[in-house]
Amino acid sequence: MRHGSDASLNIIDQTNVASRRGSCFISRMRATLKTIGNFCALALIANFMTACSSIPKASFGTTKAGEAIEIYTLQNKNGLIAKVTTYGATLVELHVPDKNGQLADVVNGFDDVSGYEGDGNQYFGCTTGRVCNRIAKGKFTVDGTEYTLAINNDPNHLHGGNDKALSKQVWKASKSCCGQSVTFTLTSPDGEEGYPGNLKMKVTYTLTDANELRIDYEATTDQATPVNLTNHAYFNLGGAGSGTVLDHLLTLNADKYTPTDDTLIPTGKIEAVAGTALDFRQPHKIGARIPDSAAAKTEDCKTATLGYDHNFVVNGTAGELRPAAKLKEPKSGRVLEIFTDQPAIQLYSGNFLKSQAGKNGKTYPFRGAVCLETQHFPDSVNHANFPSTILQPGQTYRTTTIHKFSVE
Ligand code: BGC
Questions:
Q1: Active site residue 373
Q2: Catalytic residue among 93, 248, 373, 383
Q3: Residues lining ligand 1, CB < 6 A?
Q4: What residues pair up with 199 in beta bridges, in sequence order?
Q5: CA of 125 to the centre of ligand 1 (A)
Q6: Are residues 151 and 251 in the same domain?
Q7: Cα-based angle 403, 405, 408 (whole degrees, multiple of 5)
Q8: Could you tell me the distance, in angstroms and rounded to a whole number, from the CA of residue 40 to the centre of ligand 1?
Q9: CA-CA distance, 14 to 241, in Å (whole number)?
Q10: Does residue 98 sit in the same domain as residue 62?
């Protein structure tokens, strides 16, 4: 600033006194404005910092490999709280009120990163991919090249593979300067978990004052590659670890679903839910028709009687935000509505939960939570009649899912 004023004085020295006075005035004004400008900038920065510092960051422990893991707390004006961690860009806690205003944490999770690295973690709350759900026999072909992925759910590939699946990676976090928002970024290098292309990803969690947890995803690549990202939150609206979800009332905005073989790979058909245990177009208790859900699969499906694990085609136009699901827990009155621009949603009724120990000494029993994973259809990369999951260089993958909480 001083240097600038000196420079203007050098110029006015060459002129007459009157104009010098005028110029002096102008230069003083400039200096004053600069000071005000700098002051404003400082005030703005201070303001931003206040906004940023209203998203507290804490340690969430250290991975077995020695990486420090962070956890961020988002809170809206109504007192709802969401906690997200850099490990797997994971939703760890989500506290929402019941009809009496009583908060409960409604998602499965662990107290620190060691739980997420342990055997009890079944993708709790994580960002799942590069391709969520299954790829048949871990094989696909893009642009004439066949790629082979890990078989981690015999005989198929599930949720992006092994150690370098997105759910097991440490993401970089940045807090928003306004609003309650944290963005996680990660670049998955070409060939990681067998997938082609350097994939740059961004996942943003926002807790709005309309009681919504919004998740925005973005990705770009330098080679054609399949991408299908979702969040794998396990919900129990009575409170995570409070029993089963069999009494939760579920509504799905889906006339159709994709039947599977006995390894949960779609046959390629798209069939009507009408007349099956998958018809959730009107609210039904999750537990009411579980034994019948087997009929909606092939006869020898090994997992069918365990509960729901089905991909539903969301009515309406993929690419546009529209209602996909509504979940209500009658006792607490808590309601979750899910809106998405994705083509489909997986209903998974916690069929492999095994009473593992979770947060705050709670355990998560068989069917103790439900996942509603917005997604492209499973194994899309091997079905030309399914909406494509291939991201091309130059394109940007973008998708949004909103979880809106209320009471009834
Ligand atoms: C799948 C289930 C799988 C579970 C693992 C779900 O998305 O549909 O089949 O067992 O994830 O937690």
A1: yes
A2: 373
A3: 122-123, 133, 264, 309, 346, 348, 352, 371, 373
A4: 188, 221
A5: 12
A6: yes
A7: 140
A8: 52
A9: 81
A10: yes
Structurally, the chain folds into a number of domains equal to 2
Full residue range of the structural domain in which residue 15 is found: 2-53
187 Cα to the center of ligand 1, angstroms: 24
Evaluate if pTM is beyond 0.85: yes
Q: Which of 177, 181, 183, 182 is nearest to 47 (CA)?
A: 177
Q: Please say whether the beta carbons of 256 and 312 come within 8 A.
A: yes
163 shares a domain with 17: no
The pLDDT of residue 205 is above 60: yes
Out of 53, 68, 91, a domain closes at: 53
Write out pLDDT tens, residues 288-315. Answer: 998 766 555 543 344 456 899 999 999 9
**Amino acid in position 287:** G
Q: Is 332 helix (H, G, I), strand (E, B) or coil?
A: coil
Which residue has a Cα nearest atom 7 of ligand 1?
A: 133
Which of 70, 157, 193, 232 is an active site residue?
232
Backbone angles phi, psi at 260, to 5 degrees: -125, 170
Token couple for 208: 């709005």
Q: Same structural domain for residues 49 and 89?
A: no
Which residue has its alpha carbon closest to ligand 1 atom 9? 309
Quickly tell me which residue has 């009809």 as its tokens: 99
Residue 169, domain CATH: 2.70.98.10
Q: 207-265, pLDDT tens digit by residue?
A: 999 999 999 999 999 999 999 999 999 999 999 999 999 999 999 999 999 999 989 99
The reply to whether 200 and 318 lie within a common domain is: yes
Q: How far is the CA of 314 from the centre of ligand 1 (A)?
A: 19
- Rounded Cα distance, 404 and 308, in Å: 23
Instruction: Indicate which atom in ligand 1 lies nearest the CA of residue 264.
Output: 9
Residue ranges of alpha helices (H) inside 196-327 are: none
C-alpha separations of 12 from 2, 16, 25, 90 in Å: 16, 8, 11, 62
**Is residue 284 annotated as part of the catalytic site, yes or no?**
no
What string of DSSP letters covers 76-138?
A: -TT--EEEEETBTTEEEEEEEE-TTS-EEE-B---SSHHHHHSTT-SSTT-EE-SB-SEEGGG
